[in-house]
From TrEMBL:
Protein name: Alpha/beta-hydrolase
Length: 358
């Protein structure tokens, strides 16, 4: 399924791609499927699909972000599909987003959140999951929110994210929140969270580049393995909560980008298309009634007041952790899965959500 890593220099220095490739194929059952996207033709989508032994387990779609991939789901899948009388079990699907990993990329401009959401929903429907829930971080949180807005109620029954996503309070939509924001009427924790979010501006140069000149940085990423490594490795280190990355983990993570079907440049275009469509300020004011769960990790890039998130969606579950960063599914899989289980457990706030569960 995965393309051969022919980087002999790396292999000679100790990295065995074949061993990592075999490990991925052993632990992750992978497939590809053609998905027709309105106005964009057919994309061949790569995905991982693991079914629980519990017949009426909850179908769950895991959506990654940048600079992640389907590999982020590697640690949470065994926990999510686990059969136990003490917690719900899930049928898990984790895709490679278009332009990422081993999915093909769109060849026309204007492929925005609407299209990513369409791909995700059509993939789940094609697998027989007419009703399902979602989990996502980074772009995954934005895409799953888009899915809840477009397909909530009928197909998307609930969504859980580990990345806070909400626009600054709007004078017409949330006037009281805006007054509170301007007056800085926040708790000590909320003030600290806002300060952390503002401080991230110093590390957001990648976003400016990828959202304005994606092809320029794309040539560099596609031309130089060392450049690709430096561009992404810096994020793996600075965006996690002192996670002890091994060389094999890092090189495997980067290799998925290097050997992606569309090349490493394709993945960064999501920033450009998102910002061209208005970013946070377009299509993000409508309140989403679909049940929403939020997990907060202290070293996340953006930490917003929960009141902002509650103003934008029906938050039924919230939990704040003492450790963890941006790649929660990979850094803290037990904590993240624990939250998802609690959200959908018999005593949880999203139990049932019109789905058959144990």
């Amino acid at each position: 399924m995965l393309k051969q890593f022919c980087f002999s220099e790396v292999t000679m220095n100790g990295f065995d791609w074949r061993a990592q490739e075999a490990d991925l194929n052993l632990w992750l059952t992978q497939f590809t499927r053609d998905i027709e996207v309105d106005g964009y033709g057919t994309l061949n989508i790569h995905y991982v699909h693991h079914k629980s032994k519990v017949a009426n387990a909850i179908p769950l779609l895991f959506v990654h972000g940048w600079p992640g991939s389907f590999i982020e789901a590697k640690k949470v899948i065994p926990l999510l599909v686990e059969e136990s009388p003490d917690h719900p079990s899930f049928h898990v699907v984790a895709l490679s987003l278009p332009g990422f990993g081993f999915s093909t990329a769109p060849t026309k401009k204007g492929f925005k959140m609407q299209q990513y959401a369409e791909v995700c929903n059509k993939l789940m429907l094609s697998l027989g999951y007419n009703e399902y829930v979602t989990q996502g971080g980074d772009w995954g949180s934005i895409i799953t929110r888009e899915m809840a807005e477009r397909y909530g109620g009928k197909h998307v029954k609930a969504f859980h994210t580990n990345f806070m996503f909400a626009a600054t309070p709007h004078p017409f939509h949330q006037p009281m929140l805006l007054i509170k924001h301007l007056a800085s009427w926040y708790t000590t924790q909320e003030k600290a969270d806002i300060a952390r979010s503002k401080a991230f501006k110093e590390g957001s140069g990648y976003h400016v580049e990828q959202s304005t000149k994606p092809q320029t940085i794309g040539y560099s990423l596609a031309d130089s393995p060392v450049g690709l490594l430096a561009w992404i490795y810096e994020k793996l280190v600075s965006w996690t909560d002192s996670y002890p990355w091994t060389d094999d983990e890092v090189l495997t993570w980067i290799s998925i980008y290097w050997f992606s079907r569309a090349g490493p440049a394709a993945s960064v275009r999501i920033y450009y298309e998102f910002d061209k469509s208005g970013g946070l300020f377009v299509g993000n004011q409508a309140y989403i009634p679909t049940p929403h769960g939020v997990s907060t990790f202290p070293q996340e890039l953006l930490l917003l007041p929960i009141s902002w998130v509650r103003a934008a969606a029906n938050v039924v579950f919230q939990n704040r952790h003492e450790r963890g960063g941006h790649f929660a599914a990979y850094e803290c899989p037990k904590e993240l899965v624990g939250d998802v289980r609690n959200m959908f457990a018999k005593a949880g706030p999203a139990y049932g959500v019109d789905l058959r569960v144990n």
